[in-house]
């Protein structure tokens, strides 16, 4: 078959892409078999078969010899390997340069789900973890900046319909649509059967159309929400239970005080949640504020400046441990002799910073986080400050999502709304309580959320103050935009 007319010929053509991206198929459709030098084929020549990884050293030595021989003779040569090793790519590029042959890199931007399903269908699939690493490595490449004479991109139009191989019961995260509304659960009136209540809430939230479920992370129920003797479960254990359900909910905390757990342990916990949920985890972190729960649980509660230092340390540690490879890490506040943390998360876990302190918290979010959560009623001021910090830090403000915590009272109709306000308001005046909680019907909340969306809010964490039975969530579905 003809060579691709848009590519120079002769040329050295280096394929770059994950397993199952379609590299070999693409090459075989365009080049003579003698022009293609494949590391898999050469493993089969010097080893026991195409997948004999023990033969890789010999296969690559042979590959280098063949490529060098052909390039020296000015013959078109297609290097069919993963192509993800920057040092090898550099060597092939230098070789082509030395012999005056145009050097072409071909990147295969095949959707990850398609790579995974093709890989799973193979006799000898690459382990899922390895494939994830390859996809991640590919995403991190900037072939355009490497000096190739030509960088071509192969895309696949095929729908990534094939399911991501995941646990038997778990779904992909629900795709984002404009504004996400995540159910924030902060009270646990679970009666006699805690697991049934929790799973019921998650299933109903999914059915109602919430994008995710977030749990408050406190050791004692906070006075703003309830009494100290109400149950408040450990959130990551609880999310582990919910990860096993057949929902598309994103799962995480809003927010975990970094004073509770050493950050490396949180990195491990969240990576595990991400893996067992098929890439649905997120991680909210904050500096912690409630002294009582720290004292009661024997935890240090350092002054605010130190807690904010801990927040920076925590984000840096988690990101270092979640990154590819096991290299030593030497960063701003954190030094680690190695970063061996398996399983790796299967997607880029978003880190949200909770808190609205303008001097440091928002600055930390601007420098280090994927999102920043602020109270809904001050979102505009806080978003403006966040943007300024992003600009000062040289970061595109679009990279730091603005999210809000909202505590809506939702009633079926006007009567139901005001009955709820009366039930919930405690000693606060009804009108004040209603205003603070934007008390209204589902359509009224939906309109309010649309306005937030127009103002650039990415996610609303909605904590329903009177969430009781899981079924109640179906009544509020109409508030979701
Ligand atoms: P490589 O690991 O990147 O070399 O991927 P392969 O070229 O071996 O392709 C992996 C699998 O995907 C094989 O079963 C191919 O038959 C299939 N495949 C590759 N490209 C295409 C394509 O364009 N369309 C379809 N339908 N299947 C393809
Ligand atoms: Mg191949």
TrEMBL record:
Q: Which organism is it from?
A: Nocardioides panacis
> What processes in GO biological process is this protein linked to?
alkanesulfonate catabolic process
Task: Identify the domain of life.
Answer: Bacteria
- Tell me which Pfam families the record gives: AAA_33 (PF13671), Bac_luciferase (PF00296)
**Where is each Luciferase-like domain found?**
197-438
The name on file for this protein is LLM class flavin-dependent oxidoreductase
User: Where are the membrane-spanning stretches?
Assistant: none
UniProt GO MF annotations: alkanesulfonate monooxygenase activity
Q: Where is this region: Disordered?
A: 157-176
